[in-house]
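Long-time lurker, first post.

We've been arguing in lab meeting about whether zinc ion would sit comfortably in this protein at all. Half the group thinks yes, half thinks no, and nobody has a model to point at. So I'm putting the question to the forum: if I give you the sequence and the SMILES, can you give me back a predicted structure of the complex? Inputs are below. Any interpretation is welcome too.
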Amino acid sequence: MAREFSKAFYNSKAWQQTRKAYVLSKFGICERCGQPNSKQVHHKTYLNESNINNPEVTLNFDNLELLCDICHQKEHNEKYSPTIWGLEFDSNGDLIQKK
Ligand SMILES: [Zn+2]
Ligand SMILES: [Zn+2]
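Top reply:
Settle the argument with this. Predicted structure of the protein with zinc ion, as tokens:
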């Protein structure tokens, strides 16, 4: 089951630009373990159907955290694993359907 509600958001230009700017602002360093070349921009407040159209949540730097793949997987596996829906993260940090 794909998370359809967030698909348009993750494909939006606003998000692409925000994500890029955020990664640059953190110099690509994972905020938890210091790993360079980190690319996963995580939403501290997880996105859902009711906040997906609220830029204060979706595009707010205060709600973002730059994580490496491992810290990002950990964050989601610990709290709320997207893998239960047959999803995984690609290298951009987007949820995709597992092949
Ligand atoms: Zn990390
Ligand atoms: Zn995340």
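For your lab meeting: Residues 4-97 form a domain with the His-Me finger endonuclease fold fold (CATH 3.40.1800). The pocket of zinc ion (ligand 1) is lined by residues 30, 32-33, 35, 67-68, 70-71 (CB under 6 Å). Whichever side wins, do check it experimentally.
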